[in-house]
Amino acid sequence: MRIGIDVTFLFDQYANRGIGNYGRELTKLLVQDVNHTWILFGYGNIKDNLDALNIKKLPQIEFVSLGKKRLSNIFNIFYFKFFYLKKIIRAKLDLYFAPYFERGLPIGKVKTAVAVHDITPMITNSYSQKGAIFNFFKGIFYQFNVKKAKKADIIFTISDFTKRELIHKGNFDETKIRRIYLGVQEKFRADNISKSTREVRRVLVMYKITKPYILYYGGLENNKNVPNLLQAFSKITGRFPDLKLVLIGKEFKVGWDNKAHAMTKSAEKILEMIEDWKLKHKVILTGEVLEHHLPIIMNNALIFGHLSSYEGFGLAVLEALAAGTPVLAARRSCYPEVLIDGASLVNPFDVDKIALAMQELLQDENKTAKLIKRGYIVSDQYSWEKTAAATISEFNQMTKEVKPLKICYVSHYFYPIKGGAENNCLALARQMVKKGHQVTVLTTNTKDKKYLKIEEFEGIKIKRFTKLNQQYYLGFSPGLWWGLMKEKADVIHAHGFGFIWQDFCLLSKKIFSRRTKFINTPHGPFMARQKYRFPLKILRFTYFQIQKFFLNKVYHIVIQVNPLQYPKWIKKYGIREAKIKYLPNGIDPTIYHEVQLDPGKNVINLKRKFVISFIGRFEEYKGAQFLIQALPELLKLKSNIYLVVIGNSGNYLEAIQALISKLNLTKKISVLVTPEDSLKDYVLQQSEIFVMPSEWEAFGLGMLEAMAKSNAIITTRTEGGEFLIKEEENGYLFDFGDVPELVALISKLITNKALLTQIQKNNLEKSYKFNWEKIALDYQQILLELIK
After folding, report:
1. Domains, the chain, ranges and CATH?
2. CA–CA dist 252, 522 (Å, integer)
3. DSSP at 436
4. How far apart are CA 497 and CA 554, in angstroms?
5. Hey, is 112 helix, strand or coil?
6. d(C-alpha 260, C-alpha 283), whole Å
7. Residue pLDDT, tens place only, 207-245
8. What is the C-alpha to C-alpha distance for residues 542 and 366, in angstroms, rounded to an integer?
9. What is the DSSP letter of 252?
10. Model-level pTM greater than 0.70?
11. HSE of 405, CA atoms in CB hemisphere, 13 A
12. How far is Cα of residue 88 from the mean position of the Cα atoms in its chain?
């Protein structure tokens, strides 16, 4: 998916507050997911934004600049509508995520997820600390944004308390709300905080902090109840004459004379209280503190006090628990839910109770030690990794619901005929049916018209058209043209380059169906083999030149099943690199199940045999004859070797059977022509080594299936071989037709049991990367992006 994230919070007034911490910690974990493309919408350039996130440039990250840095204010509405929204639409997103809603939301233009941390301003009617006029206009701005947020497709919130508030007091749609707890930054965990006496002293001196002290940070809004904290502190100063109260926040600015100056009306009131209660030498006002200094200041506090009567989650108090600092918090809003038994909870409006709770934490060492221990346990339940995982899960779930597409596959042959292209087409068609899409396959029938003209298989509608000749690339099927012209499809996905009549039909369809999107998975070049008679070589050269003229114009996307295909040969057809998508072949998860054959059937006996296997069409270029020629030498090394060759009937089947008789190997080889899948899987299950000696393989699905059954692989240096096999790690490569080298490689594995076992293990692990269910999600995303 292409997921956009609003990262403007990195450079506005929320950067170092809860919203900024949430957005920063979540974003830098989300973008690590390579299964999605992440488009960051932010100010400045990509380097500044990645530096602010403290991450490096990753291939899956894109950046869209929204211009120069701007603080969040009422003018957001204007900038979003006339500047930002256009850029969001042009990015062709599947989903847009806003960690907060002030900058604007593309409701109705793209699926939108938004985080609503709380509705404190609505509850307290406090939108600004700069006076009544600012409060009025900021209130209008806030209400406007809340109405927008309600229309989002999904709404994230941070506690069950806040979820209830959104539903009952904010009138949010309950079905849209997802509660996902926040995490604790690792730098706040006690084990990660510096205990160096020199470093601690340096940081505390920088802010004129002296021990012992009680700490508070988190704003001066009315709901924070800082005056009550201050008053309670004044009640215990007589018992603890050296104790200080440290208030951190940019509401105060420390001047050159070390005096704190109020920056807001709330701050002015706090200064007046400090003066009235004669706490001038007891309260330390630091002003804004550098973020990386906070953990040390927190860790060295005797108590962290946070008496907020209305809070969405309480990130600061969790950071204190993680740092090993006793927490005194309000028994209100989300705190009982989030802190559980890890903090001392009090009535935030009862100053005497607050003072008493402070005194107990300072005097009762056993109680405080137990509270710290419970705090560690509670804080360990919260991590940003869990937050990110839950968020991505919701993103994935949100985008699963897609409008069904009409998909038409065009394949020279199709099920039940089996081959690399046929199996790939069948797997994609099956997966798309499972995802609710309407799937049709247009194909050709065999010479004997063995299969029904129209049938339905596992929800796939199959239409087979008669071929007037049996040529492979020159096959002529008039019905295919008319069938394709009548087909109403959102996407037509053709398999194979160079089927001349098929190409003509597709080109005709492209001319008359301008809205239909066209995809091709070529699997291999036109006439990929090297040995052709001179007339066929002339045909190959001539049609190759014609293909360069039209292929790039017909197809919107060309799929390579391995990353080697485009640079090696797809590029030569004149197809632009921007149209290339990588989508490998895959295997169904059921292949990992153990196969048990019916003992009543006359099946092959592979017990107490060292089995070597081969799967491929019985054609000369597949190279099964070389494996058969190697067998006599291998039997000298290990007498219980047994070879099983599996494939569809082809022009070379009789030659293979004759070679087996000539070498007197009928008791050492079984030839299985188009066996049931269960028998094929059983052979691979019993097999130790799988050999793919083909002259050409674009991918080699048989190799992948053998890997899933824990086979070591020996294959030729083809595209598929070089893509799937890394020598010495999970198999070996050799040149087509080099029988002595093939004998040497198999012998190496037979004589080194430890090496054979390790390679088999490595192949099993590697096969898990090629799961059809995962590949199908990527494929569906390609289709949705193409339609969009």
Report:
1. 2-179 (3.40.50.2000), 186-382 (3.40.50.2000), 406-582 (3.40.50.2000), 589-770 (3.40.50.2000)
2. 67
3. T
4. 12
5. strand
6. 11
7. 999 999 999 998 898 889 999 999 999 999 999 999 999
8. 90
9. E
10. no
11. 27
12. 21
